[in-house]
Amino acid sequence: MSPAGRHQRRRNNVDQWAGTMLMDLQRNTGTGPDIVSQALASNRLGVSSVVFFGVAGAAPLTVIIGAISTIYAVVGNTAVPLVYLVVAGILSIFTVGFVAMSRHIVNSGAFYSYISHGLGRELGVSAAFVALVSYSLMQIGLFGLFGVVASAVLEAVGLQASWLACALVAWALIAVLGMLWVDLSGKVLGVLLIAEIAVVVIYDLVMVGNPAEGSVSFASLAPSQLLSPEVVAMMMLAIGGFTGFEATVVLSEEAKDPKRTIARATHLCVILAGILCSVSAWAMSVAAGPTQIVADARREETNLVFSLVAPHVPSTLISIGYLLFMTSIFAALLAFHAAVSRYQYALGRERVLPSRWGYAHPRTGAPVVGSITQSALALVVLLAYGALKIDPLVHLFAWLTVIGGLGILILMWAASAAVIAFFVQHSRGENIWRGRIAPIVAFFLLSIILLATVIGLGDLLQVESGSVFHWVFQVGYLICASIGFIWALIMRRTRPDVYAGIGRGADGRNVIDYSALARPHSHSQTNSQNPHEYRDQQLPSIK
After folding, report:
1. What is the pTM of this model?
2. Is 2 part of a structural domain of the chain?
3. In the predicted structure, residue 56 carries a pLDDT above the cut 90
4. What is the rounded end-to-end Cα distance, in angstroms, of the chain?
């Protein structure tokens, strides 16, 4: 028998043991591994509200004003509109398998839960530790951008306020909203997002209606541009503009009819973000001219969009654009806060983190301790940056969101592998496209982007050659994943009931009825009709 075969037998033995352990808990307690008296507020969010959270996390106006202008300026290539379409296509393929799995696993732990089901509990906990760091960095980094933009907006109306003071006001609002009803946050995001999309559409129409060369040019949409060597670097930058869409799955336990709501909302998030970014990037090239867009982006930087539309619209509309730029960042802050607090809740409920993190407020259903923890951590970081006078735009916003984006890309890559493994083990009624082809294609494409990002992270951070920052953050994620893996092994040895419930959600439900599986090959004689005896004989050291 090959080593791979022996490894698979050991894996099957452990999985069956964990499954029967979990069923024991369900029979004896009626609630599975969930020892928490409160739960997240269920049946609160419809498709539109979940879409608001996902698209708000992607922050389309922030991407259009900030990221697209930056890609034009830094890379110097006009293929930006096409690159956003390609990235949207890749993420749409990833979403096919991702949401197919969401129909079978409803868990606010999202990546953590999916990876634990597909690749094993140890790798699931590794993913959870990476997710906690990634989403936290994304959320905290956005405070730097909000503070700078809000300070500039106030200065334009004659008020003086430091970036830190503005960031702390946003922090206080996020801390309060994070403790209230999730559907209230959804409504806030809805109002902000609708206004944000409206101004994006108006600006796009103005730019296309006033072409620099006298006629609308489609040169930036020429497919031949995708053959240029800069395309991979552009994809690395562009994929960060979609970060946040995957957080829809974190809200699955609070959604109405989650098996349908989450799937529809996630697909809509990718499509909407892709269309908005691609069309806006093309409109910018039309207004500036395909031959001038790079030079204009380098000169105007994040003011590029406003400089292109300002000659053709009332000044009030420009002021509204600046204001909505600020609220777009706020919406993303709220969305990422919701994501990271619910990850902490899922881990606390299953006692991977201390059980107090699994407490939800009895009236609002908000994950109390997770929300407070993230708010406290953000406050400490903001005060430290303010005290040390560190640049909030470069070293708080740019650095933390790029590093956090790398972590989320790692999670998407691992999740695509988990989807493949999950549907290989049991198809669960999914067709070959959703259960096989799309996940395999997504894994291959994400592998290329992830490898390029890991190698080129230092260039994205714009650090000098030879700097420790070219590799230290990648190693940091490896350390986080290793700590999670080791912690899962410790739980398997010392707390088998907790280990059995890893990634299994509020009801401790197994996707597979392990007792119904055929007994794996073993040289020992066991009673195949008694899974508990099998567990006791096979794994006496963790009984």
Report:
1. 0.80
2. no
3. no
4. 28
